[in-house]
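Worked Example 4.2. Read the sequence first, then its structure tokens.
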Amino acid sequence: MPREQLQVLNALDVAKTQLYHFTAIVIAGMGFFTDAYDLFCVSLVTKLLGRIYYHVDGHEKPGTLPPNVAAAVNGVALCGTLAGQLFFGWLGDKMGRKRVYGMTLLIMVICSIGSGLSLSSERNSVIACLCFFRFWLGFGIGGDYPLSATIMSEYANKKTRGAFIAAVFAMQGFGILGGGMVGIVVSAAFNSAFKSPTYAVNPITSTPPQADYVWRIIVMFGAIPAALTYYWRMKMPETARYTALVAKNAKLAASDMSKVLQVEITAEEEKLEQITEERGNQFGLFSKAFLHRHGLHLLGTTSTWFLLDIAFYSQNLFQKDIFTAVGWIPPAKTMNAIEEVYKIGRAQTLIALCSTVPGYWFTVAFIDHMGRFAIQLMGFFFMTVFMFALAIPYHHWTLKENRISFVVMYAFTFFFANFGPNSTTFIVPAEIFPARLRSTCHGISAAAGKAGAIIGAFGFLYAAQNQDKNKTDAGYPPGIGIKNSLIVLGVINFLGMLFTFLVPESKGRSLEDLSGENEEEGETEFAQQTGSNRTAPV
């Protein structure tokens, strides 16, 4: 039988939903709003960058970013995010969640502003400067993943913990929506103030000099929500689970949570010492004990997040190409440069409004009723179904009369990504690992996801190119085409469904029960010898 829990942790587990829960959601969630805005706003401006800096006189089509430049602009922030997830995940377990939390936000503010600046107007300088700051912006964003998830899981009660963590992550949907809306407003304002002809009419004047300000304003806007939440992040107390179980300070944990919960909590120093001194609560990440107890869990969280992000990021970063292919965004030469930003922003906003945002909040509403395992399995299943439904009769969807139906089907894949594995892969790693390794393991899982995102972002650039070399984008070799790319993504989603069976169900249970930190010494040894963890999927 599990031992009696520390009073301070039990008080958090059984606490009724209070104002501090919503305060934590907003503080952590605004970080995620900024994360999503900064990561996805680049898809709004890549075509504009091509027109401004890679225009070719006399060419039939507007300038586009060369393959290596497009890959760098799209992927460099993801590389930074991967590094940040590993580094800040580890640092969050070493220094504490709160101390590291402010660092990530400062990096995001500074680098969002830096992304819109450049040392000169020469294109190599502009692109190099953009890539430099976007890498470090990604580094800061990466830290937000393990820290936000861990802080919210350690603050939440066990009854509604899933909904609280999901609500933090759901702010990502508003970040994507915000990116599209900022793109619409900025481009509409500039297009109205600086009218210019389409590329087909006049290739030179179709990109007015003021277009250079459009992309800079869009990428720099991400600094505003991050800066607004810095003060409140610094006011949050350290989580009681870190203070008690990792820093081993029972008095401070009890004092902090007494203020937050507004109840009297006893500091149980002897009980805490007994818990933390047991061998079962001392094993490290690279130990046989961790491998026996949590090895399959870590494989499950890393593999599902990896597979999910290959599909999710390739769809999200390159949705503008899919919309163009089916005619939802007009051919580039029939628009001026700023108008093209407006059309891409409008399409991104519509998809976010109709599928991305609702999907996240469906997860918030149902996760503590259906459970993590069921939602993740269902999400991967429907993503697979809709992806194959798009891919196999692809020619049918490209016909003019079927284009709206294509966009609806495409939106459903986003809906079930977000009411599915895109939310649950973020939630579960923050619940099932011990407090002393929780942030690290979440960072490892998230980094595996970003490795998948990099594959999706870089791979889809090349894979989605037309098989006819005369119809590819400038500088790209022939690819396998959008149809075959969608089939590959369907297979990846199916593999994600299979690996979901390695992920445990964590609904309604204490974090210490899930991680084994509440088990008596004898039980812990037995669990390590047998590989039993009592958290198998339901």
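Now turn to a second chain, presented in exactly the same format:
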Amino acid sequence: MPLPIAFLLPLFFLLAATAPSSRAADADAAPAVPQPRGFYINCGADKEVQVGSIKWVPDAGFIAVGNASAVNKPAILPVLATLRHFPDATARKYCYTVPAVKGSRYLVRTTYFYGGFDGGAEPPVFDQIVDGTLWSAVNTADSARRGMSTYFEMVAQAQGKSMSVCLARRPDTRSSPFISALELVDLEDSMYNTTDFDKYVLSTVTRSAMGAQGEIISYPDDQYNRYWAPFTDGNPTTESHSPIAPADFWNLPPARALKGAITTSRGKKLTVQWPPLELPFASYYVALYFQDPRTASPYSWRVFDISMNGKDFFRGLNASAAGVMVYSNTIQLAGKTEILLTPNGTCPVGPLINAAEIYQIVPVGGRTATSDVGAMEDLARSLKNPPPDWAGDPCLPRQNSWTGVGCSDDSPVRVLSLDLKNRGLSGSLPDSIGNLTGMNTISLSGNKLSGPIPDFSSTQTLTALHLDGNQFSGAINPSLGNLTNLKELFLNNNNLSGLIPPSLKTKPGLVMRTEGNKLQ
């Protein structure tokens, strides 16, 4: 289960929403750079827009619900000029579905710019969900007051052929949840690969380029479009004069993020308060990057010990000109965090640090059985007007399961019941509905469903099937007579024809209704 929402802290940078950065403007004039792999979705837009080297596409192909709206603010970034909002308070969640490769790792980024689109004085607070995992609350009130945008990041692994990113109302949500942009960026398999992504996701706290000043470092410097924020404190800074090869570092940090460093003089300890905020008590993934800025030589060595909050992190690190990264896969932190670098007694220069990343480790919120997910997705596609929240994981998070869908407490989670009676549904039932082998009850009475009744022979746990008051046609599927636990079969008031299977007529304990058809 995910941590309580108050402790899910995807800390964010505030991005100016008034004009493109100078770096984006430079990119427009520079030769074209290949677009980073992934999807860059401009929510609420009706046409593509190019920002630097990245082409942003409209969101219409990724979501079927919500309303597009323009943000009436002068000279804002094109990606922030539109948004999609979700006024339907009956839906349990509103989901984008983005193609993915099962088992691949992705950087997921959501961006929010309120801009008073709904005429309100303050943006709503709501939740965001990735697949079945409750990620965080989205509260952009502080940035909205300053005319800024807010972004959140997560590193996660695709569990199927798509990933869903959803918004959901909370009890304190007062108006429509909204989103400005969504990114799903392909990462290499080697990146962050010490984390078991079958069990956890990494929610970004911060990513810093030490000793750097000015703008955030991102694409094209970082080919994965990660954001590296400049970080300085009262310590001296230095700049590297050695060539830096990102491929020499685990996680492939951009050379520009390693160009600067925070340091101190020979023989002194280097203390860095980082990240520059208090952390909730939780488990974190921390990666620290080091590179000696001097020209490589037999004498260009600097050795020191690393500790965090008084506990050993790494001893005897040699930060050579080639560079090195050290990490903790799981470290518990709380409150203010202090990194202490203690030099070796014979080291000719002081310690330094070039870059750092920290992520909160969030347990995955369970899994719904793959076969059940596939069958429910097929059903959603077969219905012409499914409920608006029928996207993303059918069962998870539990408070945001699909309307009318009941699920188990098992692992993996199973779909147990379907109750969508009298909802005006049209369409048909796919053959794959028979793959819902944990199903106990199906109630689809009083709709406008048509076509044949599919084969239910694999749903041996089914006790009640209510299909009355629809437009089903053809013969009664004989597989229904082989369901050993079936107690109620309501097929009345359809367009069925032919013979009632003998196995149903003689089935003990079965309550069957077939009137209003052309059956014999």
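Notes for the reader: The longest strand covers residues 279-290. Confidence is low (pLDDT under 50) at residues 1-31.
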